[in-house]
Amino acid sequence: MIKSFRGGVHPKDNKSATAGKPIETAPLPEVAVIPMRQHIGAASVPIVKKGDLVKKGQVIGEADGFVSSNVHASISGQVIDVGSHPHPIFGKCEAVVISSDGKDEWQEGLPLTRNWEELDAAQLLKIISDAGIVGMGGATFPTHVKSTLQKDKHVDLLILNAAECEPYLTADHRMMLEEGPRIVTGVKIAMKVLGVERCLVGIEDNKKDAIKKMTDAFSGLPVEVVALPTKYPQGAEKMLINAVSGRIIPSGGLPMDVGVVVQNVGTVAAICDAVTQGIPLIERVTTVSGGSIKDPKNIRVRIGTPFREAIEFCDGFLTRPEKIIMGGPMMGMAEPSIDIPIIKGVSGILAIAKGEANTGKEASCIRCGRCVNACPMGLNPSMLSILSERGLYEEAKADYGLFDCAECGSCVFACPAKRNIVQYVKYSKAQNAAAKLKENRG
């Protein structure tokens, strides 16, 4: 039986431009701008200074606390600056800027050969932590934190998120077709870290080739590939967990509350590299697409490469884009410039052409209820937006489940009034957080 969840929407997937294209390796950036904030939690602390010579794979930023992550040099060369630079999420943040020497030399001792099966869970977890691995689906939660078992929780299931439900994005799809052994080994390592004996792989049923590849790759292992209906947001954690396992995360809860840990395709591939070869997270596969891109591609690109150079590798712009988006069009972020660096969570770079997006002027809510029908969390997005507009942030939180909103954008897609509901929700969450901080400070 094909499994799914309530609500959701069916945006045009726009994946055909890149779904059939093998991953290509982008050239090294001449200058890599490597931010110290590429993950949820505390920013890393730079441990290099201007003028230092660094090599690929060398730690240049150390994690500042448990919920933080190391950052590594993605190229070899000279540090030409340590300071504030443009960032795709935070506007600006501290970054280490490296001018390439063109040699692309590894730090001494890398890569190495390691028999991971001889290591215990604690040793594997430390390697994952040292390698700076974070969630590659876009959330960028430090993987070692997500994989650390809490004393009062019992985890018995790993779920591999291979849904890739966002329109345009095909990086995970291509990895499943081309890099099965990395994914399989990464899953086996992740299972050993968690001490679980079962894994479910959720893939949308519009990726039949990937379903077959993964089914064949995991043959003989306690891993089941589950075909899921093509519906957005099938890849959101709560929706995915419910669809493949039937478990429901309680309001305000986390996957571990129902015995589950979810990892992304790119994340387990990075785990494989780190554990078997000592290679830290210095590159990722990213989809560059949209109506304004001349030659859309899936590219393997070094962290710190400017958006501009990734776009130039795809032959530049066909037309002037109306919007540049980091990630997918539903949950991604519009960017003011292409002179910003690719970070660990950049799953896509989209150049949306004029008329390609379903945009329009925002109007007042007409109470049609389409957003309610679309919401996979069973919320009332209309009321959340209206309360936020009126400054009633506490009411949105207390009476309408504000913090249960996954910000998936299904409501915005369904809204005939073009209401920017997700932006209202984000603002309301921020106001509640600010009020709590003020209260804690007395």
Automatic annotation (TrEMBL):
Gene3D superfamilies: 3.30.70.20, NADH-ubiquinone oxidoreductase 51kDa subunit. Binds 2 [4Fe-4S] clusters per subunit. It comes from the Bacteria. Its EC number is 7.-.-.-. Its main location: membrane. Residues 355-386, 394-427 form the 4Fe-4S ferredoxin-type domain. [4Fe-4S] cluster 2 binds at residues 375, 405, 408, 411. It is found in: Cell membrane. Its cofactor is [4Fe-4S] cluster. It is a peripheral membrane protein. [4Fe-4S] cluster 1 binds at residues 365, 368, 371, 415. Keywords: 4Fe-4S, Cell membrane, Electron transport, Iron, Iron-sulfur, Membrane, Metal-binding, Repeat, Translocase, Transport. InterPro entries: 4Fe4S_Fe-S-bd, 4Fe4S_Fe_S_CS, Ion_transpt_RnfC/RsxC, Nuo51_FMN-bd, Nuo51_FMN-bd_sf, RnfC_N, Soluble_ligand-bd. It is an enzyme of class 7 (translocase). Residues 1-22 are annotated as: Disordered. Belongs to the 4Fe4S bacterial-type ferredoxin family. RnfC subfamily. NCBIfam families: PRK05035.1, rnfC. The complex is composed of six subunits: RnfA, RnfB, RnfC, RnfD, RnfE and RnfG. Part of a membrane-bound complex that couples electron transfer with translocation of ions across the membrane. This is Ion-translocating oxidoreductase complex subunit C. The gene is rsxC.
